[in-house]
């Protein structure tokens, strides 16, 4: 039995654009032949942008145009989630929409059911799976987690922008059902705030997203709503969406903070899956959907085991933890743990450094009559002075608040930059 | 594009009662009024020094609840089937 607060599953849900589908394809082989898919993802284009310069790198493959399409499909949630819920119903699930779960019912230290809002809506069960997404009010009430702090979430805002199919295909060089993601990493896409921007090609519209860490957003004197407008009007974005008509505006939180912010995700009679358990890889591989489905699958397997023994205590349900530890869910969360900490501690990588890096790339390709060696030397000099300027600024002093680092950075800006980059690379490995 | 124009495109089944309660007493003493910047639909605005909250355009994201550190917000979802209904 599934309780859903929206009028149908999907009506409350927001994401960027790509459904990662390794788990889904195991559950419903060749699902793309039946599911409401917008386009498969043949490639991705990554942009680093400042206010006036851009560097981009694209990765695409003919292999991605063949089944299983690199397990990446652009979808919109209402259409897809509705279809997926129907598949669950056909397999025997019973879905009750328009129903908010307000609390869990506990008996002798075990979860035995849920309280639905209104009337006497109490439902009892052998086990409860909490799949309530990022706000996870129920895990909070159950005391499985501490209050979330702003640094543990990111705010995403999205517009669905309608454009004729042919325009999208011509503009993004697509044939048939091919699709792409344009991914802008922080920089001027988010006015230097940790986050990013994205464009996903739907069949007859674009999903245009900006997302930022809530903590860094709160620290800047910027309104969230200005950020999406800034992104849409950016010189390296506006031409892609030109002539489009916005047809919906969405916003949602996403878990940030990775492994370190996962709550207690099982207890007597209870399992927590997906965003509610903060299972999401918030790195350059922004995978939430696959993590949600993989944890859902592991939860189902666990409950089937428990049913055999007719024992739903934490002891038996710990099988869930074992399954997750053996899968990409926990392995990736652990792997990116250091990366998340690094990103939080080194915000200059997402703003000021982009200015100097993109400028260096532009300088490298500047055409003039200087001998190339001289031009390259000047490029490095300008890179160094750009760094120095940042380290001497108010922001630079804020980010390098320790006296020693600050002085060192001002005297040897290149060394400071290289040392930090090395630390970043090590965190990534 | 103005936020009101964006919200006019969305489908809402507005509940008659607010699902988010704001304790204005606490807002009066709040030094930062950060909710007025982080809410993605600008539901929190200032009229003079007074905080004004409207719930109708709420997208139920939860941002205000996490951003407010003064304990002024009692946050919940609207009744089942009410509130925002995303179509895409
Ligand atoms: C802006 C943004 C962009 C993203 N982009 C991507 C992307 O491109 N690719 C990707 O893989 N991931 C992406 N993600 C992450 C992805 O959306 C999530 O990881 C995924 O949706 C998690 O699924 P879930 O089922 O755990 O939670 P959700 O999708 O949030 O579903 C939770 C469900 O529970 C219901 N619910 C909640 N509380 C209650 C209650 N009390 N009673 C009844 N029902 C309730 C909700 O209505 C909802 O249907 C993005 C997230 C955001 C915010
Ligand atoms: S941040 Fe909280 S206390 Fe401050 S004005 Fe907003 S709701 Fe009120
Ligand atoms: S939940 Fe989100 S949209 Fe609603 S009032 Fe709070 S911040 Fe604004």
Written overview of the protein:
The complex is a heterodimer of chains A (429) and B (88). Helices cover 39% and strands 24% of the residues of chain A. In chain A, a hairpin with a 3-residue loop joins strand 13 and strand 14 (205-213). The longest helix of chain A has 21 residues, at 289-309. With 429 residues, chain A is α+β, with helices and mostly antiparallel strands. In chain A, the strands form five sheets. In chain A, strands 2, 3, 4, 5, 11, 12, 13, 14 and 15 form a nine-stranded mixed β-sheet that branches. A three-stranded antiparallel β-sheet of chain A has the order 7-8-9. The mean pLDDT of chain A is 95. In chain A, helix 8 runs antiparallel to helix 10, helix 14 runs antiparallel to helix 16 (403-411) and helix 16 packs across helix 17 (413-428). Chain A has a domain at 346-428. Chain B is of the alpha+beta class and 88 residues long. Chain B has a single domain (3-85), classed as Alpha-Beta Plaits (2-Layer Sandwich). Helices cover 23% and strands 23% of the residues of chain B. Chain B has four helices and six strands. Chain B has helices spanning 3-7, 24-29, 35-38, 63-67, and strands spanning 11-13, 20-22, 44-47, 50-53, 73-75, 83-85. Chain B has a two-stranded antiparallel ribbon with strand order 1-6. The longest helix of chain B is centred in the first third of the chain and has 6 residues, at 24-29. Chain B is globular, with a radius of gyration of 13 Å. The two termini of chain B are 19 Å apart. The model of chain B has no long low-confidence stretch (mean pLDDT 97). Chain A binds chain B through residues 5-7, 10-14, 76-79, 97-100, 116-118, 134-135, 137, 148-150, 153, 155, 157, 159-160, 205, 207, 214, 217-218, 221-225, 229, 246-253, and chain B through 1, 3, 6-7, 9-10, 13, 34, 36-42, 59-63, 65-67, 76-81, 83-88. Bound molecules: flavin-adenine dinucleotide and iron/sulfur cluster (2 copies). The site of one iron/sulfur cluster has 12 residues of chain B, from helix 4.
């Amino acid at each position: 039995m599934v309780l859903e607060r929206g009028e149908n599953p999907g009506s409350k849900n927001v994401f960027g654009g790509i459904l990662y589908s390794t788990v889904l394809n195991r559950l419903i082989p060749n699902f793309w032949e039946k599911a409401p898919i917008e386009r498969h993802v043949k490639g991705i284009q990554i942009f680093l942008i400042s206010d006036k310069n851009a560097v981009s790198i694209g990765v695409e493959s003919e292999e991605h145009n063949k089944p299983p399409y690199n397990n990446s499909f652009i979808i919109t949630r209402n259409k897809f989630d509705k279809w997926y819920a129907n598949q669950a119903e056909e397999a025997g699930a019973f879905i009750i929409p328009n129903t908010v779960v307000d609390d869990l019912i506990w008996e002798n230290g075990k979860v035995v059911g849920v309280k639905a809002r209104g009337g006497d809506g109490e439902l009892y069960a052998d086990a409860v799976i909490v799949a309530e997404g990022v706000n996870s009010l129920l895990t909070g009430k159950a005391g499985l987690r501490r209050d979330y702090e702003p640094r543990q979430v990111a705010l995403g805002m999205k517009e669905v922008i309608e454009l004729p199919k042919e325009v999208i295909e011509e503009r993004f060089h697509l044939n048939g059902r091919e699709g792409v993601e344009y991914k802008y990493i922080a920089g001027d896409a988010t006015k230097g705030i940790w986050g990013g921007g994205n464009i996903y090609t739907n069949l007859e519209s674009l999903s245009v997203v900006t997302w930022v860490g809530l903590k860094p957003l709160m620290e800047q004197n910027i309104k969230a709503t200005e950020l999406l407008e800034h992104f849409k009007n950016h010189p390296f974005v506006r031409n892609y969406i030109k002539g489009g008509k916005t047809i919906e505006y969405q916003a949602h939180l996403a878990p940030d903070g990775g492994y370190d912010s996962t709550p207690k995700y099982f207890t007597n009679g209870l399992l927590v899956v997906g965003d509610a358990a903060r299972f999401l890889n918030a790195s350059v591989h922004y995978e939430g959907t696959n993590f949600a489905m993989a944890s859902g699958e592991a939860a189902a397997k666990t409950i089937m085991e428990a049913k055999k023994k007719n024992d739903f205590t934490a002891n038996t349900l710990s099988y869930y933890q074992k399954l997750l530890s053996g899968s990409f869910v926990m392995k990736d969360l652990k792997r990116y743990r250091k990366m998340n900490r690094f990103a939080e501690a080194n915000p200059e990588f997402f703003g000021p450094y982009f200015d100097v890096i993109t400028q260096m790339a532009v300088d490298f390709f500047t055409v003039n009559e200087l001998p190339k060696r001289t031009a390259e030397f000047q490029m490095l000099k300008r890179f160094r002075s750009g760094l120095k300027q940042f380290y001497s600024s108010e922001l630079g002093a804020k980010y390098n608040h320790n006296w020693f680092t600050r002085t060192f950075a001002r005297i040897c800006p290149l060394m400071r930059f290289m040392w930090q980059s090395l630390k970043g690379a090590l965190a990534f490995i | 594009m103005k936020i009101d124009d964006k919200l006019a495109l969305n489908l809402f089944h507005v509940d008659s009662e607010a699902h988010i309660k704001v304790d204005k007493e606490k807002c009066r003493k709040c030094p930062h009024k950060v909710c007025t910047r982080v809410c993605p639909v600008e539901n929190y605005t200032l009229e003079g020094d007074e905080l004004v909250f409207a719930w109708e355009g709420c997208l139920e994201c939860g941002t205000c609840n996490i951003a407010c550190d003064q304990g002024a917000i009692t946050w919940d979802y609207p009744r089942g089937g009410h509130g925002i209904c995303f179509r895409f």
